[in-house]
Amino acid sequence: MSGTIYVYASGGSFLASIAEVPGCVARGATRDEAVASVRRSFRDYLELMRGRGVSTEHWNALDPDTFAVKDPPEDRLVPEDTKPLEEHEIRDFLHQVEGSRSALLALVRGLSADDLERKPTPDMWSVREALEHVMQTEVTLLSRMEKWPDHDFATLQAAHRMAFQRFSILEPADTAGSHRIFQYGWSTRKVMRRILEHEYEHLQHIKQILAALGGQRAPE
After folding, report:
1. Which in 44, 48, 180, 196 has the greatest CB count within 10 A?
2. Residue 219: is the preceding peptide bond cis (ω within 30°)?
């Protein structure tokens, strides 16, 4: 089976991804380095998925050394990503998500607070910053793909459930101490207060937007 590697200029370096294997990606300082790196990453990615119980049978016949290398279209929407998903592909994606998250958690569990904050060099991220980036990007991508209100604001409600679940497992002892947020010390109580304040602020904000557009709705 043949495959395709797409290479993107990204943040001063190059990012290469394998169209047939969502999730398999690698970065390089040059285009050639990125391509060579993603060819190597192919087998590592399959091994990672298999180690987490994800089937890789539909990829086993692929040979990364034979993959064609292409530049993506100008809008970066490659042909392989324009086709509607079938049910089995959605299930495959969910299995991959579970496997990937399981591997990530296994990597970071047991790290101390100091380990999470420590940076190898001043220019590199800490583990905490990398994990925060993962969380923030996921929520941003989901919100941008939402067809509001067709899905009853599903992403907004999912973000709410995430926050609700996080606080529902708190024990009183867990709320002592402070957290470093926006360069300041925040207590758990302050985080909770700000979540409520921020939502109320924007409830009022959205009322203003609706009024400016000539309509207004009271909260249900």
Report:
1. 48
2. no
